[in-house]
Each structure stands twice: as structure tokens, then as C-alpha cells.
């Protein structure tokens, strides 16, 4: 009997130790906030990762950042693995806005709050909040820059857009079209590379379907190589009256640099003005060198601060502050929005260097 008791108490101790070890193990793996970003292949998202890491120093909550590498399947695996680690909040920038619905629906079912980051997840009710830049303003700023730097009348206008799987591509194009269309209508610009845009050039606003038709022709898929090939094809097909001084709506910096290189190497192109966005270091250098005309600076530090602020409010059981809402095709998602800044050669130093965003030593020829 005594021996039996001893055996039982040893067993109890063993079980307790095992339970303690398991608890320790799970708390070591436990993650409060999961962050999922689209790809490491574009400097934009590597920058976001770094800004998240900077912002997370000194927080009490544990976080983990995973990349989807351009694959919605990998994105879903990432979300599932974070949910399994017990996350309470998911901050996710979708690779493909529609395809990400399945991943976040799973997370929401598990009780996780979902924050869509920069890109909106579309056609699902499983998005709780959205932190974003003013993407329509990005497109407007790009279009306005081309207008402000137009040379006379009848200037050829080359249009390029982002990936149709990214809701932002529509917002950027919508913003650009809103200012460019009146200038196409009054003859300042003539569209050089999209028959769909020409067919719709009398419309001051476009439906999503109409935008889809144009974007289908002018998409770069956010891919610098695809942008380069498309620009080459466009210039090969262009008649002489579509060269000379030209304006180019390029949706972001990665595509702008490759499109600019193609236009720069065409002898029949006398001059070009080309837009961009993200203030990527390589494009800041292009602007200093006069190879890219402008970029739209989106201060990622602010977006990261807003996203983490929202996550912490949710973890603390509070309601995050929002400034408006975005319809995602299914619901209105409460959103916090951040303004953007136009940068060209004239203010590159004050906006990006003096502000402490980048060190001057990263660039050559800065004045
Ligand atoms: C982002 C841009 C980025 C693009 C390509 C968009 O959703 O807002 O900043 O350049 O995706 O990754």
C-alpha cells in the first residue's frame, strides 16, 4: 500500500512536470500578433518588415512576421500557422485581395481580429479593420504631376497600372483618371497604348468593370520585368506621332524604373516625365540622377505605427480609432488612413533625408 502510494505520487509529479513543460513550451511559441506580408522580392515590403521590427522593439506583446512570396496558398499556410500559435490579432497585406478571403475567414472563426494592411482584402466580411495610405490621392498626385509638367498640346500619354488582383491598383488608377481624363478631353494628352482607355476617354468616372478593361491592357502585375516588356512592346508598336516628348503614368517605383529605362533608350523619345510611388531607395537615386521624375512618398513608419496601435488596442480590449471606411465589395471596413507626399528633385532632400527617413550616405550626387 505504501509502495503504491509512492508510485502514485511519483506519477503525479511526473504528470505535473510534463504539464509545466508543455505550458512553458507553448508560451515560448505563443504569438500575440501575426504579421503577414506579400513578398520579399520587392523592396517596399522588405522595408515594411524592417519598420515593423523597429517599432516592435520594446513592446510587451510577441509578434511574428511571415512572407507569402507571391503565393496565396503560402499566405493561407502562414495565417493557419499563426492561428495555431494562438494569435489574437492578424495584420495582413494580401497577395491577392479576393484569394486572401479564405485565409482570414479561417482566422476570424478562430476568434482572431483581422487588420487588412495597405491592401484591402475584398469580398468577405472577415476583415475587422483597414490601415492604409490614401491610395486615391496617390493616383491623383501621379496624374497631376504629369499635367503640371505637360509640354504643350497633344502629348502622348502612356498608361501603366498595378496588378488587377490588388484593390489598390484600381484606387491608384481611379485617382489618376479623375485628373487626367479632363486633360485628355481638352487635347493636352493623347492616349498612346490602350484602346480600351481610348474607347472610354469621354467618361469622367469609370465603373469597376470599365477600370478592369483598361487595367487588363496596361497591367504590369507589379512586376518590373513585365513592365519592361510591355513598355518595349508599346514603343515598338507606336507611330512617330506617339513619340517625342511623352508622359508616362507608372504605378510604382519598381515598374517606373524599368519603364523609364526602356523609354530612355528609344532615340525617338525626346523627353519623358514618369511617375512612381514608394520612395524606394533605387528610385530616390533615379530622381537625383534625373531618370525618374517623381515618386509618392508613403511614410511606412506611420502605417506600421497605426497598425500596431490598432493591434494593441484590440489586445487591451479597446475599440481602435478609425477615420473612415472602405467598401470591400461585401462590407464597409472601418479604416485609418494616412496622407502621402509628392517628392521630386526639388524636395527630395527635405522630404526624405532631412526628415530622417533615409541617411544621406545612401545616395550619390545629393545636393
Ligand atoms: C502598394 C504599393 C506597392 C505595390 C506593389 C501596392 O498595393 O500600395 O506601395 O508598390 O502594391 O507591391
Automatic annotation (TrEMBL):
InterPro entries: Bact_Solute-Bind_Prot2, Peripla_BP_I, SBP_2_dom. It is found in: Cell envelope. Residues 1-23 form the signal peptide. Residues 33-318 form the Periplasmic binding protein domain. Keywords: Signal. The keyword Flavoprotein does not apply. It holds the Pfam family Peripla_BP_4. Gene3D superfamilies: 3.40.50.2300. PANTHER family: D-XYLOSE-BINDING PERIPLASMIC PROTEIN (PTHR30036). This is Sugar-binding protein. The lineage of its organism: Bacteria, Bacillati, Bacillota, Bacilli, Bacillales.
